[in-house]
Write a structure and sequence with these properties.
The complex is a heterodimer of chains A (113) and B (116). Chain A has 113 residues and is mostly beta strands. In chain A, 0% of the residues lie in helices and 53% in strands. Chain A is built from no helices and 11 strands. In chain A, the strands form 2 sheets. In chain A, strands 2, 4, 5, 9, 10 and 11 form a 6-stranded mixed β-sheet that branches. A 5-stranded antiparallel β-sheet of chain A has the order 1-3-8-7-6, with no helix packed on it. The N and C termini of chain A lie far apart (38 Å). Chain B is globular, with a radius of gyration of 13 Å. Chain B is mainly beta and 116 residues long. The chains are: A mainly beta (113), B mainly beta (116). The A-B interface holds A 4, 6, 31-32, 34, 36, 41-46, 49, 51, 89, 93-106 and B 1, 4, 6, 31, 33, 35, 40-45, 48, 55-56, 91, 93, 95, 98, 100-110, 112.
Chain lengths: 113, 116
């Protein structure tokens, strides 16, 4: 049962344009959502998060949007840079005492110079 | 990913051998999580530990896998009698002591286990 889904395995974007990565979830108990970035042979690196009480969080070039009614979140990167090329994972937590994160399968972003 | 140290980075084992993966959390972090990433898949939760306690092992296979986080020293993920299906990247993450959810986990660079 895939509770967090990233339906696009890959995305290609031109440098300077906007990258939009999407994520859907099924568990309505999730109340905290995160995006991680992962380069080959490295561990995931935390990018940005959002609590379910908000619908937008912004940090520099990265903005995460949350639509609770649609159980959908997205990560916007603008402007995209070649160094942003990596796999992006969406993750969610249900607010339990464990802070256990459930990850999506990832989207490979390629930013073309 | 400075701070969370995993070793070895690469581990090759023959079928039937034991694999021991080590994780030292970030300084000041007392919560450790182990995740596994199979090829072409996302990260799957395995186990959550605090010092000397297993809190949630709902993602651990019922047999051959065990984990510990002793009072002194790193957390250990142990796989006995490895099989080819155990080949994967195993990631450790840590977080500081906290109440409730709402803080990101900090990941190490993983151990890539290859079973031949």
């Amino acid at each position: 049962d895939q509770q967090v889904k990233q339906n696009s395995p890959s995305l290609s974007v031109q440098e300077g344009r906007i990258s939009i990565l999407n994520c859907d979830y099924t568990n309505s108990m999730f109340d905290y959502f995160l995006w991680y970035k992962k380069y080959p042979a490295e561990g995931p690196t935390f990018l940005i998060s959002i609590s379910s009480i908000k619908d937008k969080n912004e940090d520099g070039r990265f903005t995460v949007f949350l639509n609770k009614s649609a159980k959908h979140l997205s990560l916007h990167i603008v402007p995209s840079q070649p160094g942003d090329s990596a796999v992006y994972f969406c993750a969610a937590s249900d607010g339990g005492a464990t802070n256990k994160l459930i990850f999506g399968t990832g989207t490979l972003l390629a930013v073309q110079p | 990913n400075a701070g969370v140290m995993q070793n070895p980075r690469h581990l090759v084992r023959r079928r039937g051998q034991e694999a021991r993966l080590r994780c030292s959390p970030m300084k000041g972090h007392s919560h450790v999580y182990w995740y596994r990433q199979l090829p072409e898949e996302g990260l799957k939760f395995m186990v959550y530990l605090q010092k000397e306690n297993i809190i949630d092992e709902s993602g651990m296979p019922k047999e051959r896998f065990s984990a510990e986080f002793p009072k002194e020293g790193p957390s250990i993920l142990r796989i006995q009698q490895v099989v080819r299906g155990d080949s994967a990247a195993y990631f450790c993450a840590s977080s500081p002591q906290r109440e409730g959810s709402g803080s990101p986990l900090h990941f190490g660079n993983g151990t890539r286990l290859t079973v031949t």
